[in-house]
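Worked example 3. Consider a protein that binds flavin mononucleotide.
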Amino acid sequence: MQPVAIKNDIFWVGCVDYDHRDFHGYSTSPEGTTYNAYLIKDQKNALFDTVYPGFGKTLLCRLAKTLDPEKIDYIICNHMEFDHAGSLAEIVERTKPEKIFVSQTGMKSLQGYYGQTDWPLVPVKSGDSISLGKRTVVFQETRMLHWPDSMVSYIPEEKLLISNDIFGQNIASTVRFLDEYKDKGDYEHRVKEYFYNIVLPYSPIVLKALPIVEKLDIDMIAPDHGLIHRGVDACRAIVETYRNLAEQKPQKKALIFFDTMWHSTEQMAYAIGSGLEDNGVPIRIMSTKNNHHSTIQTELADCGCVIAGSPTHNNTILPLVSAQLTYMKGLKPLHRIGGAFGSYGWSGESAKIIHEALASMGMEMPCQPLKCAWRPTKDVLKACHAFGETMAKALIAKCEQA
Ligand SMILES: Cc1cc2nc3c(=O)[nH]c(=O)nc-3n(C[C@H](O)[C@H](O)[C@H](O)COP(=O)(O)O)c2cc1C
Ligand SMILES: [Fe+2]
Ligand SMILES: [Fe+2]
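Given these inputs, the predicted complex is written out as structure tokens:
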């Protein structure tokens, strides 16, 4: 359990949580995650962020290999969420810092979680800076990326940006740097997963923040989850990836998700899918029973079109489809087209309910809701195929306009 030097006298002192599966309590993290915390040894020794509850001792143990914890002078809390501040009380107790820096809004969330404390808190705002000796820490608030209290810390002398949740990924690994990580496909997926399940609603804010990051002279971005981006090119690459994710330009792929009791709605899903494929649009079909809502949400990153289906169940839709729609709506996807379908027996409300849910997310709806009584007949399957064809043409047109 050693600290990892990421620059001269700057160390990773975080924890790898291989078993964490429900990131933030609602999103899957199939490979676990890391809680990165960083130490700068200077005339003033500064610890940047802490770790998830239960991991405080691991952090202290690792840190103690390079510095007596009581020699920590400053703690910088870039974000008060539990994965970065959940062990704060334990760390404060052990290190007895001279000062703890938090954003002004962070003072509120800190009080909300820890109540009144006698901690030596110092609120900071964008542009404020502190000297550690040879190095300076400049604070930049990143409100609503992804909490009101979020901020990042820039160390100009080291060309280092400690970026908190921004640019992070849920990866649990022995390696600390992206350039050491062999599975680039997995990395890209985990960036998408993190962005689409946590950051997506704040895409317009991301697009305003990226030019600020681009003006900084940096050669390392150290996020609080996952791998560190080392080198100017790697920093540029992750900024560009974030720009693409936040812009949400329509992409030529369709996500079809559904639930079904007796497989009629499922048959419709596959017929619609083949209508899309036959007209040049790749698809991904996902049953809500077999895929976690965050896995379906991640798939949306590659899809400009969302088509959802449910049979009518007690005059409404099945609960997993409802949950998926609620989850997706909260994450505020932009620039999509949508479509709705479902089988029914007697009253048949489901397709219309889904149609309205997708329309309420601002999606363009090129087709009327597609209903099928009981089992789809050959004609119904043809209608499903035609539905897929119309959706494909609408998506291709949207992609060409963008
Ligand atoms: C418990 C239950 C409740 C249902 N409630 C309704 C309903 O309120 N209105 C309706 O039109 N059909 C209702 N149905 C009929 C289903 O919508 C119909 O069987 C449909 O074909 C099922 O599609 P699936 O094969 O995709 O599950 C209900 C079926 C079940 C089993
Ligand atoms: Fe967070
Ligand atoms: Fe986090």
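Take a moment to read the result before moving on. Residues 79, 81, 146, 165 surround fe (ii) ion (ligand 2) (CB under 6 Å). The chain has a mean pLDDT of 97.
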